[in-house]
Every structure is written in structure tokens, then in C-alpha cells.
Amino acid sequence: MAVLVPVLLIGFGATALADTASGAATNPPPGATPQGDATKGGQIYSQSGCAGCHGAALEGGVGAKLNPIQKLPGVADPLDPAYLVQTITNGRSGDPGFSAAMPPKGGSPTLTAQDIQDLAAFIIQSNKAANQPLSPTDLARSTVFWVSVGVAGMVIVAWLLAVYNMRWIARRARARSGGT
After folding, report:
1. Whole-angstrom Cα distance, residue 133 to residue 153?
2. What's the CATH class of domain 38-129?
3. Tens of pLDDT, residues 16-66
4. What is the DSSP string of 28-43?
5. Verdict on whether the full-model pTM lies above 0.85
6. Which has the higher per-residue pLDDT, 154 or 8?
7. Contacts for 143-149 with beta carbons within 8 Å, 24 or more apart?
8. With contact defined as beta carbons under 8 Å apart, do 51 and 43 qualify?
């Protein structure tokens, strides 16, 4: 057991820390990223009145929550740039739980097509910047690390107890034999 446990921990650690082909960064599919500027989109969001319904921090209110984005009925991927552009451009109505419909261009007819792309980029970037769950590889690495720390701590405590116990046994043996 004294050899098996460290060997298993080293093996699991090496496996979890190794870069795998599936864990490598992949290119997003074509059309998965909007053609807008998220920084400009944030400015447009604040200035065009979007915050009046969707909240200053995209937390929702009269309108849907945008960070993390609220999944509405009939929407497969609410962060799809095409869906966001279409919804901002044409508006949306009939969603349960909302008293008002979203008007086309959010009620701001001066929004250009580029402004809408920028808004979509801002919403997507805000959602990506939010805390995301760990990937399976990162979760495995974290688990292996903390299990290793726990096992190492237990080994140290066991060693300290063994050293103390051996000293105590030696003292008792000396006391029984009449030595000091």
C-alpha cells in the first residue's frame, strides 16, 4: 500500500495534467462569433435605453435577463449571434412572464446594423466573462490536486504520529528496564 498509493496518485496526476487532443482549444464554427465590437456594444447598451428594461448589469427586469442569458421558449441557443441580431432587429413578444414585448431595435430606431452587431457581441462577451463551470479536464486536475494534498497531509500526520509513538514506546521500555 505504501508504494501503490503514491504510484496511483502520480499516474492519475500525470493523466489529468497531460494535454489531450480533446482538451485543446477548438476554433468556433463559422458564424458563431458576431462581427461586432463588444466595447462599443456596451456603450450602445448604456446609451440606447436597453438598460431600462434589461437592467444596467444585464440582470433583467421588465425585459429578459441577459447575463446569464435567460433561455426563452422556442430558443435553442440564446447566445447564437444570428438569434441575438434577429431579436434585437425585429423585437420579440409573447414570452410568458413578461408584461411588455421587446420593440424592434429596442425602441431605438436610430440603431444601425453595425450597432446591433456590437450589442450582440457585448451580450455574448458578458456571458462568456461570467463564471463558467469547470471543463471536465479542469475538474479532473482540480480533483487530483486536492486529493493529492489530502493524502500527503494524511501521510505527514501518520508519520508524525508514528515518530511520537516510537519515542513513547522507547521511553516506556527504558522506564521498565530501570534506565533513564
Report:
1. 28
2. mainly alpha
3. 665 443 443 333 444 455 688 989 999 999 888 888 888 888 888 888 888
4. PPTTSS-SS-HHHHHH
5. no
6. 154
7. 143/16, 144/9, 144/12, 144/13, 144/16, 144/17, 145/13, 147/9, 148/9, 148/13
8. no
Full DSSP string of 133-148: PPPHHHHHHHHHHHHH
Determine the pLDDT at residue 33.
56
Least confident of 7-21, 108-122, 147-161: 7-21
Q: By C-alpha distance, which of 67, 71, 69, 49 is closest to 57?
A: 67
What is the residue extent of each domain of the chain? 38-129, 133-180
**pLDDT reported for residue 86:** 92
31, with CB counted inside 10 A (0-12, 13-18, 19+), is exposed
Cα angle, residue 117 at apex, residues 112 and 122 outer, rounded to 5°? 120
Record the cell numbers describing residue 113, joined without a space.
446594423
